[in-house]
Amino acid sequence: MTRRSVGLLLLIFGGLVAAVGLIGMFTSDDGAGSEALPTTPTAIQNIETTTTTSVATTSTTQIADTTTTSVPATTTTTLDPTAAIETFVEEFSGAIERQDVDSLMAALHPAVLEAFNEELCRSFIEDEILLLGDYRLTGPIQGPTPQTMGSFTVDMYTGPVAFAFQGQDFESDASFAFEENGVTWFTECRGS
Length: 192
Prior knowledge:
The structure is a single chain. With 192 residues, the chain is α+β, with helices and mostly antiparallel strands. Helix content is 34%, strand content 34%. The chain is built from five helices and nine strands.
């Protein structure tokens, strides 16, 4: 294992410890009637692309003839991750409003389903994620940062989000990655 891999694992572990600490702070029973803080979801569905086409031309001149050779055009596709994640968060918020558990499940990153079983994640979405309101990005998207999660190597993007849960406003960081079917989100599925 390389130093970089170890460093990334320590970074992920530190983030998880911090998240657990924050969750514990909001869920501790101190008699003040505090409410549970849900894990914040992240994901991406649509990817906007821009295409650049270039054509190279070379010319050779002979005594009486002119020969022109064209090289086939090359196409470069550029992904705008910020725009794709912004679109995803809007769609994610819409799925919550519509109570669309199937869409939220379909957008989960496969690493989440590898770490937690599908039944637990579905229950978590039904019991907690569907209770979120006014889910939105509140700042710039950062990344990508390569991370290993189970059997997956992921280029992780993060962004600050805010939402309402059981009458209280919360801020958190959400994590996203691009997969074949678009943007996906990460969470820690847990039981109620």
